[in-house]
Write a structure and sequence with these properties.
InterPro entries: Flavodoxin/NO_synth, Flavoprotein-like_sf. The chain is α/β, with parallel strands linked by helices and 167 residues long. 39% of the residues lie in helices and 20% in strands. It has one domain: Flavodoxin domain (Rossmann fold). It is globular.
Length: 167
Amino acid sequence: MEITMKAIIVYFSLEGNVKFVAEKIKKQLNADMLCLTPKKEYPTGKVSKFFWGGKSVIFNEKPKLESYQFNKEDYDVIVIGTPVWASSYTPPIKTFLSENDLSGKSVAFFACQSGNDASKCFEKLKNELKNCQVAATLALVNPAKKKTNEDQLQIDTFCYNILNHIK
Ligand SMILES: Cc1cc2nc3c(=O)[nH]c(=O)nc-3n(C[C@H](O)[C@H](O)[C@H](O)COP(=O)(O)O)c2cc1C
């Protein structure tokens, strides 16, 4: 199918699950990618990642990001990808949303998690992006570890819903 709309995937991924999904969506939507990188990296140690990541969410941190190029006017839809941290979206996404007013844009969210309820994370994102139209949402459980056909089908449906919303 020819894709006439332009999408960008803006994401943060600590351990590769969100990146794994972002790359699949990129292929399907022929999208640009913007990987957010905090200047001070979060640790990936088994315990320290929960301590420092959890603390960062609870204290509402907006970590400084490595410089990036982004112009919302270039895009019909902005797809935001995040791991669920402490039932919320991640602090680098918070920084991005505080630096970029997406009012009036169409957006879509996807989240990766280890449990099975991303609803609070999506509620918070919707609240932060009150003046945006939400084209689609997608939540997957650690997809890079499982690589299942079910997850692929959900990614396909997510992309289809975005295309349908924009056309
Ligand atoms: C600091 C921290 C907090 C987390 N909190 C949650 C949570 O509240 N609910 C959940 O289902 N998974 C939680 N997880 C698990 C991640 O959301 C999950 O492993 C996700 O797939 C990681 O994405 P990534 O590999 O792109 O970093 C947490 C992970 C970390 C590091």
